[in-house]
Amino acid sequence: MKRFLMLAVLLATAAQAATGIMTSNVNLRRTASATGAVLTVIPQGTSLTVVCTGSWCRTTYKGQSGYIARSLVRLQTSTTSLSTPAQPAQRADVFYANCTAARAAGAAPIMRGEPGSRSKLDRDNDGVACE
Fold first, then answer.
1. Considering just the CA atoms, what is the radius of gyration of the chain in Å?
2. How far apart are CA 81 and CA 49, in angstroms?
3. For the segment 47-88, what is each residue's pLDDT rounded down to a tens digit?
4. Are 37 and 50 in contact (CB under 8 A)?
5. How far apart (Å, rounded) are the C-alpha atoms in residues 69 and 42?
6. Residue 20 pairs with which residues in a beta bridge?
7. How confident is the model at residue 15 (pLDDT cuts 50, 70, 90)?
8. pLDDT for 99-108, tens place per residue?
9. How far apart, in whole angstroms, are the C-alpha atoms of residue 65 and residue 115?
10. Region of residue 113 (phi > 0: left; psi between -120 and 50: alpha; otherwise: beta)
11. pLDDT class for 95, splitting at 50, 70, 90?
12. Residue 10's pLDDT is what?
């Protein structure tokens, strides 16, 4: 029953997505924080799909997902509703013994509510495990 409820929550969530242009070279960070580890630098003028909340936007660049400062993105399209895609049933059974295992599987960082997320892996309780 717990797995069914978790899947229902995942299906019901929605985010606002838009196309954005980087106004300068932008650090793609592991967490939504100015002190978050820098994964890579996105060149000025790059166009990406972004999902923004507050002063941070989540995006993916060259296969790496992370966060960029909203102030460095010029939105080109108005936001539209983007429903979270349904996860296959087996994804709800994902378990990582520790963050080393999650990183080896290419799953880190894991956002709260994503398959494999659990409080033991989120030491600072910020909603991002294995950061």
1. 15
2. 13
3. 988 988 889 999 999 889 999 999 999 988 655 544 445 444
4. no
5. 12
6. 48, 75
7. low
8. 888 888 888 8
9. 16
10. left
11. confident
12. 38
What is the distance between the alpha carbons of residues 116 and 97, in angstroms, rounded to a whole number?
9
- CB atoms under 10 Å from CB of 110, counted, come to 23
* pLDDT > 70: percent of the chain: 75
Q: Where are the beta strands (DSSP E) in 1-131?
A: 14-22, 26-29, 38-42, 47-53, 56-61, 64-69, 73-75, 80-83, 110-111, 128-129
Cα–Cα dist 16/50, whole Å: 8
Tell whether omega for the bond before 85 is within 30 degrees of 0, i.e. cis: no
Q: Name the strand (E) or helix (H) holding 103.
A: helix 99-104
The pLDDT score that the predictor gives to residue 1 is 44
Strand-pairing partners, residue 74, are 21
- How far is Cα 82 from Cα 49, in angstroms, rounded to an integer? 11
Beta pairing partners, 57: 52, 68
Nearest-angstrom CA–CA distance, 62 and 79: 22
With a pLDDT cut of 90, the percent of the chain lying above it is 32
